[in-house]
């Protein structure tokens, strides 16, 4: 249980403003800071080749904390039955751990455990989960030596099959059985899959390693019907002290928006709506 004076830092996933996955993520660090963010979440699009020295310099210049995420490439799929593909994935993930450590990120979140939007045709999915878990155990052990906690994001059934609820994800964590693997929750995905969002957070308990605040319709907080009071109470109960990061891709005409099936604008005044969302989180959740 958190004390009354504990305040969580607030952040934004930088692709909120960017059109393409290849865009320079550091180009919006100043904008994030100017609008009141404490943290930026960056994606390791270039894997271990990320220019961490330049990123770190820009983070220092704007006095921002950082969290790292990634998506597992299909040719490095650690769920694959092909041993060479799995080994390539393990090597890639270790390189991403190195990059996160160089950046000073305490976590490496997102989808390190499965390629996004990958759905096997077989009916029995247990072998895929088991291969993923076995690979993640090795990567988590490596991450522990570098002070980086791996956080696997629980996303909805239309984007992955590995797990979609906290209960299922806890079973996956039990398969991996390593303390440097934790859960990443996102209220947008939870709104689709959990019967009770607060109860799911409580069930995650000490295994909660990273948290995304996104509203029910993938807008910024305040743009949907998520009730934030119970979210705060649950986060306080489990003692979560990490950042609250907003992740939305509001531009339907951008590569980033199209990738998550955004067909109408989810924001009009990007900076103004971000400031309003930050104010809401500060008053109701942080």
Please, could you describe this protein's structure?
Helix 2 (52-62) packs parallel to helix 3 (83-103). The protein has 286 residues and is an alpha/beta fold. The protein has one domain: Divalent-metal-dependent TIM barrel enzymes (TIM Barrel, Alpha-Beta Barrel), CATH 3.20.20. The longest helix has 21 residues, at 83-103. 40% of the residues lie in helices and 14% in strands. The two termini are 14 Å apart.
Question: How many individual domains?
Answer: 1
Poorly predicted regions are none
Name the CATH superfamily assignment: Divalent-metal-dependent TIM barrel enzymes
- The rounded Rg comes to 18 Å
The computed structural class is: alpha/beta
Give the integer mean of the pLDDT values: 97
**Oligomer, anyone?**
single chain
The number of strands is: 8
Remind me, CATH topology? TIM Barrel
Query: What is the succession of H and E elements?
Result: EHEHEHEHEHEHHEHEHH
How are the secondary structure elements laid out?
Blueprint: E1 10-13, H1 29-34, E2 39-43, H2 52-62, E3 65-71, H3 83-103, E4 107-111, H4 126-144, E5 149-153, H5 166-176, E6 181-186, H6 187-193, H7 197-204, E7 208-212, H8 228-238, E8 244-246, H9 255-259, H10 270-284
Parallel strand pairs: 1-2, 1-8, 2-3, 3-4, 4-5, 5-6, 6-7, 7-8
Helix pairs in contact: 2-3, 3-4, 4-5, 7-8
Short summary:
The protein has a single domain (10-284), classed as TIM Barrel. It is built from ten helices and eight strands. It is α/β, with parallel strands linked by helices.
């Amino acid at each position: 249980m958190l004390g009354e004076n504990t305040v969580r830092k607030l952040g934004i996933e930088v692709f909120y403003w960017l059109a393409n996955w290849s865009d320079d993520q550091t180009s919006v660090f100043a904008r994030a800071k100017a609008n009141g963010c404490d943290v930026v979440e960056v994606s390791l699009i270039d894997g271990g080749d990320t220019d961490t020295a330049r990123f770190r310099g820009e983070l220092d210049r704007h006095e921002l904390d950082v969290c790292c995420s990634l998506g597992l490439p299909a040719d490095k799929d650690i769920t694959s039955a092909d041993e060479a593909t799995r080994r390539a994935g393990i090597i890639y993930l270790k390189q991403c751990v190195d990059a996160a450590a160089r950046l000073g990120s305490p976590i490496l979140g997102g989808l390190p455990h499965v390629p996004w939007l990958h759905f096997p045709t077989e009916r029995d999915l247990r072998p895929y989960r088991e291969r993923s878990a076995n690979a993640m155990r090795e990567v988590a052990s490596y991450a522990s030596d570098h002070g980086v906690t791996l956080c696997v994001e629980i996303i909805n059934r239309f984007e992955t099959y590995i797990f979609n609820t906290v209960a299922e994800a806890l079973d996956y964590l039990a398969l991996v059985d390593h303390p440097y693997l934790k859960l990443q929750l996102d209220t947008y995905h939870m709104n689709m899959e959990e019967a009770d969002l607060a109860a799911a957070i409580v069930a995650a308990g000490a295994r909660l390693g990273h948290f995304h605040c996104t509203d029910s319709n993938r807008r910024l907080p305040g743009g949907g019907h998520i009730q934030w009071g119970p979210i705060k109470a649950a986060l306080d109960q489990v003692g979560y002290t990490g950042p609250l990061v907003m992740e939305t891709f509001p531009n339907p005409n951008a590569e980033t928006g199209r990738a998550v099936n955004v067909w109408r604008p989810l924001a009009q005044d990007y900076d103004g709506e971000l400031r309003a969302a930050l104010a809401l989180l500060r008053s109701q959740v942080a």
